[in-house]
Write a structure and sequence with these properties.
This is Carotenoid isomerase. InterPro entries: CrtISO-like, FAD/NAD-bd_sf. It is built from seven helices and two strands, in the order ββααααααα. It has a two-stranded antiparallel sheet with strand order 1-2. α6 crosses α7. The longest helix has 19 residues. The two termini are 25 Å apart.
Amino acid sequence: MVIISIPTIFDPTLAPEGYHVLHAYTAASEDFGDWEEFLKYDLEKEDGEFEGNCYKRDYEDMEGYKKLKEDKSQVLFDAVERIFPDIRSRLNSPENLISIGTPLTHRRFNRRGFGAYGPGVDSDSDTWKLLQTKALGIENLYMCGDCCFPGIGIPGVSASGCIAANTVVGVREHGREVKRGRKMGILQ
């Protein structure tokens, strides 16, 4: 699943006039093992020892990183192309900014284990069992948010809320309630 959001639809001040911000990502589906080879440069000092929680600032200069990042990003561009068929040609202009994050980016900036962008919890862990509402023994409890699928960020948390809502009332009833909320002016 690829989640796409365009926050400038609701807040045009996030980009210069005539431009938009488009955010596309997959939720916790990236194999961190593909990126592990780059970690050996993170904390190493000259003597081969590791230093604190210091992460390498830039992997771009490392052989193979740019190509792997480019290859892995294609699934995102393919999904965006289904909505905007000419997106790649639109992005070729030098004034456009394309910023592709990787699990290493998320590990550095979000401090998420293994660079998870979503619920990066081991399926055998006690934490995961706690996130399963049946295990809590509370009837009619539905969870959504940062540690539920599809994970962190406004789009992911919003999507998890929609999944919980659709579980409770079904997609059609949920759609009717959204329309009702818009008519009442409580939803955009």
